[in-house]
Write a structure and sequence with these properties.
CATH topology of the largest domain: Rossmann fold
CATH class of the largest domain: Alpha Beta
Largest sheet: 6 strands, mixed
Structural class: alpha/beta
Distance between the termini: 21 Å
Order of helices and strands: EEEHEEHEHHHEHEHEEHEHEEHEH
Strand content: 25-35%
Number of helices: 11
Strand order of the largest sheet: 6-7-8-3-9-10
Number of domains: 2
Bound molecules: adenosine-5'-triphosphate
C-alpha cells in the first residue's frame, strides 16, 4: 500500500523543550491507523504539524505525496480533521452548523444529509447542538470533518470523555468510515482497549520518540511467547520446568505461565510434564493484550529492539 502520510525525521521544539525527536512514520492508504501514546508524548503536536497548524521546523511531512509547507491548501482540501472537541455554535442545530462549513467549502448541498446519516444523527439534525450529549457532539465533529468528502481523516482523541456506549459508537463509526466509505483514518488515543478493537495499524509514541509502528499482528509477533498451563499439580509442574531451565514469569491459583522462545519448546514442555506423571489439562498460548505490551514498552523503552 502507498503511504498517504509520510513523516521523515520530524523534530519539534517549544522554546528549549524538544517534544518530538526524529519521528519517522508512514500511514498506509486505506488504513485505520492508531496513534498511541501517554499524555504529553507529542500526539497533538504531531497532528498540529500534520495539519500545518504548527510550522514544521524541518522539511519532514508529505501528505498525498505533497509537502505540507508548500502545498497546505491543496492537502487540506482533501483532509478532514477533528482536534479534541468540535467548535460548535450551540444555539444552532447540527444541520445549520454543518451548513456553515459546507458553504465555506462550497461543497454539494446533498452532503449534509449524507454525513448526518453516516454519523447516525439524521433524526436529531434539527435539534440545537447545545442540547446534544458529548458523544453526539463528537459524532457531529466527525461529520463536520467529512464535509467536502476528504480522503483522509485526522482525528485527535475523538473518544475523550465519552462513556462506554459513546466510545463504542465512535469505534463503529471509524470502522465504517474506513471499511465502507474508503477513508484513511488517522486517530490518536490513549484508550488502548479501543485501539486494539479498531485499528489495522498503529504507532506508539513515548516522550516524543517512536517505539513501534506497524500492524497489530506485527506488534503481537514481536512479543515473547508465553504458555498458560494447567495440570493436576501446578507447583510440581513449575519445579520440573524450572529444573529444565524454563522461566516461569507467573503462577496463579489454577495456571502457571512459561516463557518460550520457539514453538518446538511447547512439545518438549508437554513431554516433560507427562513423563513426570502429571495430568496436563490445558496448554495454551497466551497473547499479551495491547495494554500489557504498551506498558512494557513505555515503562522501559530501551528494552524494545525495534
Ligand atoms: N503550545 C505549546 N507551548 C509549549 N509547550 C507545549 C505546547 N503544546 C504542547 N506543549 C508541550 O509539548 C509536549 C507534548 O504535548 P502534546 O499535547 O503534543 O502531547 P499529547 O501526547 O497530545 O498529550 P495529551 O494526550 O495529554 O493530549 C508536552 O510536554 C506539552 O506540555
Amino acid at each position: 500500500m502507498t503511504p498517504i502520510i509520510q513523516i521523515s525525521q520530524l523534530s519539534h521544539c517549544f522554546g528549549k523543550q524538544q517534544v518530538l525527536h526524529d519521528l519517522s512514520l508512514e500511514i498506509p492508504s486505506g488504513s485505520l491507523f492508531g496513534f498511541l501514546g501517554p499524555n504529553g508524548s507529542g500526539k497533538t503536536t504531531t497532528i498540529r504539524l500534520l495539519l500545518g497548524l504548527l510550522k514544521s521546523q524541518n522539511n519532514a511531512i508529505r501528505i498525498f505525496g505533497q509537502d505540507i509547507r508548500s502545498c497546505r491548501e491543496s492537502i487540506l482540501r482533501r483532509t478532514g480533521a477533528l482536534i479534541e472537541s468540535p467548535a460548535l455554535y450551540l444555539h444552532l442545530s447540527a444541520h445549520d452548523n454543518l451548513e456553515i462549513i459546507r458553504s465555506a467549502r462550497q461543497s454539494d448541498k446533498r452532503q449534509l444529509a449524507e454525513v448526518l446519516e453516516i454519523v447516525g444523527l439524521s433524526g436529531q439534525a434539527r435539534q440545537k447542538t447545545g442540547e446534544y450529549s458529548l458523544g453526539m457532539r463528537q459524532r457531529l465533529g466527525i461529520a463536520m470533518a467529512m464535509i467536502g468528502n476528504p480522503e483522509l481523516l485526522i482525528l485527535d482523541e475523538p473518544t475523550n470523555g465519552l462513556d462506554p456506549a459513546g466510545i463504542r459508537q465512535i469505534r463503529e463509526l471509524l470502522l465504517a468510515l474506513c471499511q465502507h466509505h474508503g477513508k484513511t483514518v488517522f486517530v490518536s488515543s490513549h484508550l488502548l482497549d479501543e485501539i486494539e478493537k479498531t485499528v489495522s495499524h498503529l504507532a506508539i509514541l513515548h516522550d516524543g520518540r517512536l517505539l513501534f509502528q506497524g500492524s497489530l499482528a506485527q506488534l503481537h509477533e514481536q512479543q515473547p511467547l508465553q504458555l498458560a498451563i494447567e495440570t493436576d499439580n501446578n507447583l510440581h509442574a513449575a519445579e520440573i520446568l524450572r529444573n529444565a531451565n524454563f522461566r516461569i514469569p507467573e503462577i496463579t491459583q489454577d495456571r502457571l505461565f512459561v516463557a518460550v522462545a520457539e514453538k518446538h519448546q511447547i512439545d518438549r514442555i508437554n513431554r516433560l510434564l507427562l513423563e513426570e506423571g502429571l495430568c496436563v489439562y490445558e496448554l495454551n498460548r497466551k497473547q499479551r493484550t495491547l495494554e500489557e505490551v504498551f506498558f512494557s514498552m513505555t515503562a522501559d523503552p530501551s528494552r524494545i529492539n525495534l
